[in-house]
Amino acid sequence: MIQIEKILDYAIEHDASDIHFICGNKPMLRIIRDLVPVEGSEELLPEDMNEIYDYLVKGNLDKDSVYTKTKKLDTSLEYGGKRFRVNISSGEDIPLFTLRIIKNELPKFEDLGVPDIVRRMTFQPQGLMLVTGKTNSGKTTTLNALINEINETQNKKILTLESPVEYKHHSKKSIIVQKEVGIGGDSLCYSDGVKNSLREDCDIVVVGEIRDRETMDAAIETAEAGHLVIGTLHTKSCAETIDRMINFYDIKDQQTVKYLIASLLKLVISQRLLKGTDGKLVLVPEVMVVDNIVAGLIRKDKISVSEIEDAIQSNLEKGSIGLINSIAELFVDDKITLEQAKAQIEEKNIETLNRTIMQLRIKKNK
To answer: Most buried of the four, 20, 78, 88, 107, by CB within 10 Å?
Structure first.
Protein backbone atom coordinates (compact mmCIF):
# COMPACT_ATOMS: atom_id res chain seq x y z
CA MET A 1 0.00 0.00 0.00
CA ILE A 2 1.41 3.38 -1.02
CA GLN A 3 1.85 5.93 1.78
CA ILE A 4 0.67 8.99 -0.10
CA GLU A 5 0.77 11.45 2.79
CA LYS A 6 4.29 10.35 3.72
CA ILE A 7 5.38 11.28 0.18
CA LEU A 8 3.58 14.63 0.42
CA ASP A 9 5.35 15.34 3.72
CA TYR A 10 8.70 14.40 2.17
CA ALA A 11 8.09 16.74 -0.78
CA ILE A 12 7.16 19.64 1.50
CA GLU A 13 10.19 19.01 3.72
CA HIS A 14 12.56 19.03 0.72
CA ASP A 15 11.02 22.20 -0.78
CA ALA A 16 9.97 20.47 -4.01
CA SER A 17 7.94 22.39 -6.58
CA ASP A 18 6.24 19.34 -8.13
CA ILE A 19 5.50 15.68 -7.42
CA HIS A 20 5.18 13.11 -10.23
CA PHE A 21 3.35 9.79 -9.81
CA ILE A 22 3.87 7.66 -12.95
CA CYS A 23 3.19 3.93 -13.09
CA GLY A 24 6.40 1.85 -13.28
CA ASN A 25 8.50 4.65 -11.79
CA LYS A 26 9.33 5.73 -8.27
CA PRO A 27 7.54 8.87 -7.07
CA MET A 28 9.67 11.77 -8.33
CA LEU A 29 10.14 15.32 -7.05
CA ARG A 30 11.10 18.42 -9.02
CA ILE A 31 13.64 20.34 -6.92
CA ILE A 32 15.16 23.44 -8.57
CA ARG A 33 14.67 22.01 -12.07
CA ASP A 34 16.11 18.55 -11.21
CA LEU A 35 14.04 15.34 -10.95
CA VAL A 36 14.83 13.43 -7.76
CA PRO A 37 13.25 10.12 -6.58
CA VAL A 38 11.58 10.02 -3.17
CA GLU A 39 14.05 8.33 -0.86
CA GLY A 40 13.06 4.81 0.17
CA SER A 41 10.15 4.60 -2.29
CA GLU A 42 9.21 1.69 -4.55
CA GLU A 43 8.17 1.67 -8.20
CA LEU A 44 4.49 2.46 -8.54
CA LEU A 45 2.09 -0.34 -9.52
CA PRO A 46 -1.33 0.04 -11.25
CA GLU A 47 -3.08 -0.56 -7.92
CA ASP A 48 -1.02 2.27 -6.39
CA MET A 49 -2.21 4.59 -9.14
CA ASN A 50 -5.84 3.73 -8.47
CA GLU A 51 -5.29 4.35 -4.76
CA ILE A 52 -3.77 7.78 -5.50
CA TYR A 53 -6.74 8.55 -7.77
CA ASP A 54 -9.22 7.75 -5.00
CA TYR A 55 -7.23 9.88 -2.55
CA LEU A 56 -7.21 12.92 -4.85
CA VAL A 57 -10.74 12.71 -6.29
CA LYS A 58 -12.26 11.83 -2.88
CA GLY A 59 -15.42 10.32 -4.37
CA ASN A 60 -16.47 13.55 -6.11
CA LEU A 61 -18.81 12.30 -8.85
CA ASP A 62 -18.45 15.45 -11.02
CA LYS A 63 -14.66 15.17 -11.04
CA ASP A 64 -14.78 11.43 -11.66
CA SER A 65 -17.15 11.99 -14.57
CA VAL A 66 -14.82 14.60 -16.13
CA TYR A 67 -11.84 12.25 -15.92
CA THR A 68 -13.80 9.24 -17.19
CA LYS A 69 -15.03 11.18 -20.24
CA THR A 70 -11.93 13.23 -21.10
CA LYS A 71 -9.07 11.26 -19.49
CA LYS A 72 -7.85 14.47 -17.85
CA LEU A 73 -8.75 16.49 -14.78
CA ASP A 74 -7.45 19.65 -13.10
CA THR A 75 -8.28 19.91 -9.42
CA SER A 76 -6.69 20.91 -6.11
CA LEU A 77 -5.77 19.38 -2.77
CA GLU A 78 -5.25 20.80 0.70
CA TYR A 79 -2.88 18.88 2.97
CA GLY A 80 -0.49 19.71 5.78
CA GLY A 81 -1.32 23.38 5.65
CA LYS A 82 -0.38 23.48 1.95
CA ARG A 83 -2.36 23.69 -1.28
CA PHE A 84 -1.53 21.52 -4.26
CA ARG A 85 -2.53 22.06 -7.90
CA VAL A 86 -3.35 18.61 -9.24
CA ASN A 87 -3.37 17.40 -12.84
CA ILE A 88 -4.62 13.89 -13.58
CA SER A 89 -4.09 12.44 -17.05
CA SER A 90 -3.83 8.97 -18.55
CA GLY A 91 -1.03 6.76 -19.86
CA GLU A 92 -1.79 3.30 -21.24
CA ASP A 93 -5.23 3.70 -19.67
CA ILE A 94 -3.71 4.10 -16.19
CA PRO A 95 -4.07 7.45 -14.38
CA LEU A 96 -0.91 9.46 -13.74
CA PHE A 97 -0.55 12.52 -11.55
CA THR A 98 1.37 15.79 -11.40
CA LEU A 99 1.05 17.82 -8.19
CA ARG A 100 2.33 21.40 -7.98
CA ILE A 101 3.01 22.58 -4.42
CA ILE A 102 1.68 26.09 -3.85
CA LYS A 103 3.69 28.08 -1.34
CA ASN A 104 1.57 29.61 1.43
CA GLU A 105 3.37 32.93 1.32
CA LEU A 106 3.95 34.74 -1.92
CA PRO A 107 7.41 36.20 -2.43
CA LYS A 108 7.43 39.98 -2.36
CA PHE A 109 7.00 41.52 -5.78
CA GLU A 110 10.36 43.28 -5.59
CA ASP A 111 12.12 39.97 -4.75
CA LEU A 112 10.89 38.17 -7.87
CA GLY A 113 13.04 40.06 -10.32
CA VAL A 114 9.99 41.37 -12.20
CA PRO A 115 10.68 44.90 -13.50
CA ASP A 116 8.84 47.66 -11.65
CA ILE A 117 7.14 48.91 -14.84
CA VAL A 118 4.87 45.83 -14.63
CA ARG A 119 3.64 46.88 -11.17
CA ARG A 120 3.21 50.49 -12.24
CA MET A 121 1.15 49.47 -15.25
CA THR A 122 -1.52 48.02 -12.92
CA PHE A 123 -2.54 51.60 -12.12
CA GLN A 124 -3.93 51.89 -15.67
CA PRO A 125 -7.72 52.36 -15.43
CA GLN A 126 -8.39 50.01 -18.35
CA GLY A 127 -6.70 47.90 -20.99
CA LEU A 128 -5.03 44.52 -21.35
CA MET A 129 -1.85 43.26 -19.66
CA LEU A 130 -0.36 39.83 -20.36
CA VAL A 131 2.04 37.65 -18.39
CA THR A 132 3.50 35.04 -20.75
CA GLY A 133 6.06 32.26 -20.86
CA LYS A 134 6.41 28.53 -21.25
CA THR A 135 5.15 26.01 -18.70
CA ASN A 136 7.04 26.29 -15.38
CA SER A 137 8.28 29.81 -16.12
CA GLY A 138 6.73 31.31 -12.97
CA LYS A 139 3.71 32.97 -14.61
CA THR A 140 1.33 32.02 -11.79
CA THR A 141 3.70 33.35 -9.12
CA THR A 142 4.15 36.65 -10.97
CA LEU A 143 0.39 36.97 -11.55
CA ASN A 144 -0.43 36.37 -7.89
CA ALA A 145 2.35 38.67 -6.70
CA LEU A 146 0.75 41.38 -8.88
CA ILE A 147 -2.67 40.66 -7.36
CA ASN A 148 -1.20 40.89 -3.87
CA GLU A 149 0.58 44.15 -4.72
CA ILE A 150 -2.67 45.68 -6.02
CA ASN A 151 -4.51 44.36 -2.96
CA GLU A 152 -2.06 46.13 -0.64
CA THR A 153 -1.81 49.45 -2.51
CA GLN A 154 -5.03 50.09 -4.47
CA ASN A 155 -8.72 50.32 -3.65
CA LYS A 156 -10.17 48.02 -6.34
CA LYS A 157 -12.53 45.11 -6.81
CA ILE A 158 -10.48 42.26 -8.27
CA LEU A 159 -12.07 39.14 -9.80
CA THR A 160 -9.81 36.18 -10.53
CA LEU A 161 -10.70 33.20 -12.73
CA GLU A 162 -8.44 30.20 -12.13
CA SER A 163 -8.32 26.48 -12.89
CA PRO A 164 -7.86 25.60 -10.08
CA VAL A 165 -7.51 28.42 -7.49
CA GLU A 166 -3.93 28.21 -6.22
CA TYR A 167 -2.98 31.08 -3.89
CA LYS A 168 -5.77 32.11 -1.54
CA HIS A 169 -5.92 35.91 -1.27
CA HIS A 170 -7.58 37.81 1.57
CA SER A 171 -9.06 41.24 0.92
CA LYS A 172 -6.91 44.10 2.24
CA LYS A 173 -7.19 47.53 0.62
CA SER A 174 -9.00 45.90 -2.30
CA ILE A 175 -11.87 43.41 -2.48
CA ILE A 176 -10.84 40.07 -4.03
CA VAL A 177 -13.24 37.45 -5.40
CA GLN A 178 -11.61 34.21 -6.58
CA LYS A 179 -13.55 31.81 -8.82
CA GLU A 180 -12.63 28.31 -9.89
CA VAL A 181 -13.19 27.47 -13.54
CA GLY A 182 -14.40 24.05 -14.69
CA ILE A 183 -17.17 21.52 -14.16
CA GLY A 184 -18.23 21.65 -10.53
CA GLY A 185 -16.52 25.04 -10.13
CA ASP A 186 -17.84 28.59 -10.02
CA SER A 187 -17.76 29.11 -13.79
CA LEU A 188 -17.93 26.45 -16.50
CA CYS A 189 -15.28 28.12 -18.67
CA TYR A 190 -13.03 31.19 -18.71
CA SER A 191 -15.04 33.02 -21.37
CA ASP A 192 -18.27 32.72 -19.35
CA GLY A 193 -16.52 34.01 -16.24
CA VAL A 194 -15.02 36.99 -18.06
CA LYS A 195 -18.35 37.89 -19.70
CA ASN A 196 -20.19 37.73 -16.38
CA SER A 197 -17.61 40.02 -14.77
CA LEU A 198 -19.20 42.88 -16.72
CA ARG A 199 -22.19 42.59 -14.37
CA GLU A 200 -20.11 42.26 -11.19
CA ASP A 201 -18.81 45.85 -10.93
CA CYS A 202 -15.16 44.78 -11.18
CA ASP A 203 -12.21 47.08 -11.66
CA ILE A 204 -9.69 44.37 -12.51
CA VAL A 205 -10.33 40.92 -14.03
CA VAL A 206 -7.56 38.34 -13.83
CA VAL A 207 -7.81 35.49 -16.36
CA GLY A 208 -5.73 32.47 -15.35
CA GLU A 209 -5.26 31.36 -18.95
CA ILE A 210 -6.34 32.72 -22.33
CA ARG A 211 -6.40 29.56 -24.40
CA ASP A 212 -9.03 30.12 -27.11
CA ARG A 213 -10.77 32.73 -29.22
CA GLU A 214 -13.85 32.87 -26.98
CA THR A 215 -11.76 33.86 -23.96
CA MET A 216 -9.76 36.37 -26.00
CA ASP A 217 -13.02 37.89 -27.32
CA ALA A 218 -14.34 38.21 -23.77
CA ALA A 219 -11.07 39.73 -22.52
CA ILE A 220 -11.06 42.33 -25.32
CA GLU A 221 -14.74 43.16 -24.72
CA THR A 222 -14.10 43.59 -21.00
CA ALA A 223 -11.08 45.84 -21.60
CA GLU A 224 -13.12 47.89 -24.09
CA ALA A 225 -15.84 48.30 -21.47
CA GLY A 226 -13.42 50.13 -19.17
CA HIS A 227 -11.79 47.40 -17.06
CA LEU A 228 -8.19 46.34 -16.62
CA VAL A 229 -7.78 42.72 -17.73
CA ILE A 230 -4.65 40.80 -16.70
CA GLY A 231 -4.18 37.39 -18.31
CA THR A 232 -1.62 34.72 -19.15
CA LEU A 233 -0.63 33.07 -22.42
CA HIS A 234 1.73 30.16 -23.12
CA THR A 235 4.11 31.98 -25.46
CA LYS A 236 7.90 32.30 -25.33
CA SER A 237 8.36 35.96 -26.30
CA CYS A 238 6.51 39.27 -26.47
CA ALA A 239 6.50 39.25 -30.29
CA GLU A 240 5.16 35.68 -30.39
CA THR A 241 2.39 36.75 -28.00
CA ILE A 242 1.10 39.31 -30.51
CA ASP A 243 1.19 36.68 -33.25
CA ARG A 244 -0.70 34.18 -31.07
CA MET A 245 -3.41 36.69 -30.18
CA ILE A 246 -4.04 37.52 -33.82
CA ASN A 247 -4.00 33.89 -34.93
CA PHE A 248 -6.88 33.04 -32.61
CA TYR A 249 -8.96 34.67 -35.37
CA ASP A 250 -9.85 33.84 -38.98
CA ILE A 251 -7.92 35.78 -41.62
CA LYS A 252 -11.00 37.84 -42.52
CA ASP A 253 -11.28 39.08 -38.91
CA GLN A 254 -7.60 39.69 -38.22
CA GLN A 255 -7.33 43.30 -39.40
CA THR A 256 -10.17 44.39 -37.10
CA VAL A 257 -8.61 42.49 -34.20
CA LYS A 258 -5.21 44.10 -34.83
CA TYR A 259 -6.72 47.56 -34.35
CA LEU A 260 -8.41 46.44 -31.11
CA ILE A 261 -5.22 44.88 -29.76
CA ALA A 262 -3.16 47.93 -30.74
CA SER A 263 -5.49 50.23 -28.80
CA LEU A 264 -6.13 48.01 -25.74
CA LEU A 265 -2.88 46.17 -25.09
CA LYS A 266 -0.74 48.07 -22.57
CA LEU A 267 2.08 45.71 -21.67
CA VAL A 268 3.39 42.18 -22.18
CA ILE A 269 5.95 40.51 -19.93
CA SER A 270 7.46 37.28 -21.23
CA GLN A 271 9.50 35.43 -18.64
CA ARG A 272 11.83 32.46 -18.27
CA LEU A 273 13.36 30.76 -15.24
CA LEU A 274 16.96 29.58 -15.23
CA LYS A 275 18.99 27.80 -12.59
CA GLY A 276 21.37 30.49 -11.38
CA THR A 277 25.02 30.23 -10.42
CA ASP A 278 23.96 30.06 -6.75
CA GLY A 279 21.71 27.04 -7.41
CA LYS A 280 18.52 29.07 -7.08
CA LEU A 281 16.06 29.93 -9.87
CA VAL A 282 16.52 33.34 -11.48
CA LEU A 283 13.91 35.14 -13.57
CA VAL A 284 14.75 36.39 -17.08
CA PRO A 285 12.15 39.01 -18.12
CA GLU A 286 11.38 40.53 -21.50
CA VAL A 287 8.99 43.50 -21.28
CA MET A 288 7.12 45.22 -24.09
CA VAL A 289 5.40 48.51 -23.28
CA VAL A 290 2.92 49.21 -26.08
CA ASP A 291 3.55 52.76 -27.28
CA ASN A 292 2.62 54.35 -30.61
CA ILE A 293 5.48 52.63 -32.44
CA VAL A 294 4.55 49.13 -31.23
CA ALA A 295 0.84 49.83 -31.81
CA GLY A 296 1.68 50.83 -35.40
CA LEU A 297 3.57 47.57 -35.94
CA ILE A 298 0.62 45.57 -34.60
CA ARG A 299 -1.74 47.27 -37.05
CA LYS A 300 0.43 46.47 -40.08
CA ASP A 301 -0.85 43.94 -42.65
CA LYS A 302 2.01 41.56 -41.85
CA ILE A 303 3.37 41.22 -38.33
CA SER A 304 7.18 41.28 -38.23
CA VAL A 305 8.71 39.61 -35.18
CA SER A 306 12.09 41.27 -35.82
CA GLU A 307 10.50 44.73 -36.08
CA ILE A 308 8.69 44.24 -32.77
CA GLU A 309 11.93 43.06 -31.13
CA ASP A 310 13.74 46.14 -32.49
CA ALA A 311 10.93 48.38 -31.18
CA ILE A 312 11.28 46.83 -27.72
CA GLN A 313 15.03 47.40 -27.81
CA SER A 314 14.62 51.06 -28.84
CA ASN A 315 11.92 51.79 -26.26
CA LEU A 316 14.00 51.27 -23.11
CA GLU A 317 13.31 54.76 -21.74
CA LYS A 318 9.58 53.95 -21.54
CA GLY A 319 10.14 50.76 -19.56
CA SER A 320 10.54 48.11 -22.26
CA ILE A 321 13.31 45.56 -21.67
CA GLY A 322 14.78 43.44 -24.47
CA LEU A 323 15.57 39.78 -23.84
CA ILE A 324 19.23 40.32 -24.75
CA ASN A 325 19.50 43.16 -22.22
CA SER A 326 18.00 40.99 -19.46
CA ILE A 327 20.33 38.10 -20.23
CA ALA A 328 23.40 40.35 -20.48
CA GLU A 329 22.64 42.04 -17.17
CA LEU A 330 22.19 38.72 -15.38
CA PHE A 331 25.53 37.51 -16.75
CA VAL A 332 27.36 40.71 -15.80
CA ASP A 333 25.88 40.40 -12.28
CA ASP A 334 27.23 36.79 -12.11
CA LYS A 335 23.74 35.32 -11.77
CA ILE A 336 23.99 33.07 -14.85
CA THR A 337 26.86 31.66 -16.92
CA LEU A 338 27.84 32.82 -20.41
CA GLU A 339 26.81 29.39 -21.75
CA GLN A 340 23.32 29.84 -20.26
CA ALA A 341 23.11 33.35 -21.69
CA LYS A 342 23.99 32.21 -25.22
CA ALA A 343 21.59 29.25 -25.01
CA GLN A 344 18.63 31.64 -24.58
CA ILE A 345 19.05 33.43 -27.91
CA GLU A 346 19.48 32.61 -31.59
CA GLU A 347 22.96 32.29 -33.05
CA LYS A 348 22.50 35.45 -35.14
CA ASN A 349 22.11 37.51 -31.92
CA ILE A 350 25.32 36.30 -30.21
CA GLU A 351 27.30 39.29 -31.44
CA THR A 352 24.63 41.67 -30.13
CA LEU A 353 24.78 39.87 -26.77
CA ASN A 354 28.57 40.23 -26.60
CA ARG A 355 28.33 43.93 -27.46
CA THR A 356 25.63 44.50 -24.82
CA ILE A 357 27.73 42.72 -22.19
CA MET A 358 30.69 44.98 -22.99
CA GLN A 359 28.52 48.11 -22.77
CA LEU A 360 27.10 47.06 -19.41
CA ARG A 361 30.55 46.34 -18.00
CA ILE A 362 31.81 49.75 -19.12
CA LYS A 363 28.74 51.40 -17.56
CA LYS A 364 29.17 49.55 -14.24
CA ASN A 365 32.90 50.39 -14.05
CA LYS A 366 32.37 54.13 -14.47
So the answer is: 88
